[in-house]
Amino acid sequence: MTTETHEPHSPGRLPDWAWYAGVPVAAVVWWLLYNQLIPFSEWMTSLFPVARDSHTGAAIAFFIYDVPKVLLLLTGIVFVTGVLRSWFSPEKTRAILAGKRQIWGYPLAAALGVLTPFCSCSSVPLFIGFVSAGIPLGVTFSFLIAGPMVGPVGLGLLYGLVGWQIATIYLVFGFTIATVAGVVLGRMGLERHLQDWVRELNAGPVDDLSAERLTLVDRLRIGVEQVREIVGKVWIWVLIGIGIGAVIHGYVPETMMLQIMGGEAWWSVPAAVVVGVPMYTNAAGVIPIVEALLGKGAALGTTLAFMMSVIALSLPEMIILKQVLTYRLIAIFLAVVAAGILATGFLFNFLL
Amino acid sequence: MKIVKVYGPGCKRCDKTEDMIKDAASRLGIEIDVVKVTDAKSIAMAGVLSTPGISVDGKLVHAGGLPNSEKIDIWLSA
Q1: Among A194, A328, B20, B25, which is least packed by CB within 10 angstroms?
Q2: Is A89's CB within 8 Å of B51's CB?
């Protein structure tokens, strides 16, 4: 899947009409393929010399069904998100948030965190840019937590693989944690724990880039570029995640799952967070695992806690943030977000 | 001689952006000096929130994502 060798700008030379015709055609083809997944996977599985209802048969069927399904969903979600996000930019978001010192700044920042395109490699300049523009630290954190936590890829896959109920619960609680964690961190007056040079910094006004007007075709092109880049980067995590999911689906007995991740075991929620934080993958890789865990009877709260800590709290991101935050601030940040995740986990295990 | 700065922590897209600019410059016959700015502090000070960012002779022209090749031509010829 190395798209690097291809001419990167070939879509740029397509005439506009090709885009207007091509995108709907691609959408129809996508829909037809998506509806053939079950017959296709059953047919493929039947080619293997194992019984369909054996452990191995179940694992193979899971894998063969999920790989095309996740890749199709991922392509669709990334394209649509890429197009929609072309209307947003970190610069615009900063301008919107700069004036918001009231409590509404937090949910607004969380919402913009979901809609604003940014990659983790630019989270440091983004962080500095926000803080130096006078956006409160807590509001900045709400933005930075919501971005990965309630990303469209995670939500879309959750919707496609597990169902709309769980996807909605995840959206509501992920959004709440991002907002509340920002408020709590904001109230703590943590500005003094920034690295010294960040506090002293006062970035100049941003040049107006609004001259970069985009046409609809430009936006569609951004969507396609996003698909190339993101699907090209995460497909390996998707395969690993589905592989683990397939093993769980085929081989792990339900009784064992109930002991480890059942609602009765109170310690399973903190354990899920402890396991989840160092796991470095992304939403696309973890949702197939979640699908298999829930299918085997793992408690919803425990599974949500696992998923949230894998997606929202990652060690590499902490290391990136080390450039601007002191260890003390990173520890507080981790503790507050982890507390929100634990609360969500316990709440659902208690309710269900 | 135009001074073109590419702001980015060294991700793949930043390298690609640099290549695109160099290609465009040699195609258009414009002499440029490409400077890569990789330090987070300097990136932020330049007003770049999303990388890669591009400035030409001190004026920021682009931030976030791969630039469009036709636009690079315009920025360089301006």
Answers
A1: A328
A2: no
pTM of the predicted model, to two decimals? 0.83
**What is the mean predicted confidence (pLDDT) over A325-349?**
91
Closest approach of chain B CAs to the CA of A73, in angstroms? Answer: 23
Mean pLDDT, chain B, rounded, equals 85
Instruction: Tell me whether B34 touches chain A (CB under 8 Å).
Output: no
What does the domain layout of chain B look like in residue ranges?
A: 2-77
List the single residue in B with minimal CA-CA distance to A212: B62
Q: Is the pLDDT at A257 greater than 90, yes or no?
A: no
> Span B2-77: which CATH code?
3.40.30.10
Is B68's CB within 8 Å of A129's CB? no
Cα dihedral A253/A255/A261/A266 (nearest 10): -170
The amino acid at A35: N
Q: Is A147 on the interface with B (CB under 8 A)?
A: no
Per-residue pLDDT reduced to its tens digit, B26-59: 988 888 899 999 887 788 778 788 888 899 988 8
ipTM (interface pTM):
0.76
Q: Do A124 and B44 touch (CB under 8 A)?
A: yes
Does pLDDT of A84 surpass 80?
yes
Under a CB-based contact definition with an 8 Å cutoff, are residues A261 and A300 in contact?
A: no
Among B41, B47, B66, whose Cβ lies nearest the Cβ of A204?
B47
Torsion of CA A123, A336, A172, A230, to 10 degrees: 30
Instruction: Say whether A203 and B61 touch across the interface (CB within 8 A).
Output: no
- C-alpha to C-alpha distance for B15 and A115, rounded to whole angstroms: 26
Q: What's the structural domain count of chain A?
A: 1
Residue A341 lies in a domain: yes
Instruction: Flag whether A47 is in a domain.
Output: yes
Tokens representing A341?
């995740």
Residues spanned by the domain of A47: 24-203+216-351
Q: What does the DSSP 8-state code read for residue A296?
A: T
CA distance A293 to chain B (A): 35
